[in-house]
TrEMBL record:
InterPro entries: Nitroreductase, Nitroreductase-like, Nitroreductase/BluB. Keywords: Flavoprotein, FMN, Oxidoreductase. Residues 37-205 form the Nitroreductase domain. This is Nitroreductase family protein. It holds the Pfam family Nitroreductase. The keyword Flavoprotein applies. CDD domains: iodotyrosine_dehalogenase.
């Protein structure tokens, strides 16, 4: 984390060692891979509440992510308040109406057709929690002086991925919701003007009748997403 006046490098011995023998490492990562294959983006939520402590622990995992110059240019707002969730849903659905009425091109709408999305966003009020992810365009020192943040989209993207992984580790489901624009969110969430909302993540337990689009289970084969040079 950036602190004004701290400009010298101080090495520390590696604080934690979690390394394993090769065979044990392969077994562990294959088990993790198989568990991650059970992760699904879900729009259908149960009304079952989720304890705040679980959400906090998920965010605590997310903020261990690496970031450009260790500036940690993110903020996560966890919302269970029904009125706030209703306000977010109303604003998001207003944007979606414009999107589906012509704001998006035909190609984009055709790409979304197999996913089954539409104007109505009941998950934004049904899910017990919404986590709004904010990216900080720049930082502020304790005396309100600006400093530059580096690799902000990359850093926030890594932290968000770790948050989604932590949510799955807890046995919960979530959805990556990105209405655009989301200019109302900083004020609603009490965040400063230099923070930009980049994602709303509904989090909860899946409904008994939850479904996912069949198209979402089609993944590219490994030879299309991985190259190896031994």
């Amino acid at each position: 984390m950036y602190k004004k006046g701290e400009i010298s490098y101080e090495p520390l011995p590696l604080p934690d060692r979690v390394q394993k023998p090769d065979a044990e490492a392969l077994q562990a990562v294959e088990a993790f891979r198989d568990y991650m294959r059970k992760r699904h983006s879900v729009r259908d939520y149960s009304g079952r509440p989720v304890p705040r402590e679980i959400i906090t622990a998920c965010i605590e995992a997310a903020v261990t992510a690496p970031s450009g110059a260790n500036h940690q240019p993110w903020h996560f707002v966890a919302i269970a308040n029904p009125e706030m969730k209703a306000t977010i849903r109303a604003a998001a659905e207003e944007e979606e109406r414009e999107f589906y009425a012509g704001g998006a091109g035909d190609e984009w709408l055709a790409a979304l057709e197999p996913i089954g999305t539409g104007v109505s966003k009941p998950h934004l009020t049904k899910a017990p929690w919404l986590i709004v992810v904010f990216a900080q365009r720049y930082g502020l020192t304790e005396d309100n002086q600006r400093y530059k943040n580096y690799y902000v989209p990359e850093s926030v993207g890594i932290a968000t991925g770790m948050l989604i992984t932590a949510i799955h580790q807890a046995g919960l489901v979530c959805l990556e919701h990105t209405p655009n624009p989301m200019k109302f969110l900083p004020e609603l969430c009490g965040r400063p003007a230099h923070e930009k909302a980049v994602m709303i993540i509904p989090v909860g337990w899946p409904a008994e009748d939850a479904t996912v689009p069949a198209a979402a289970k089609r993944k590219k084969p490994m030879d299309e997403v991985m190259s190896v040079f031994d």
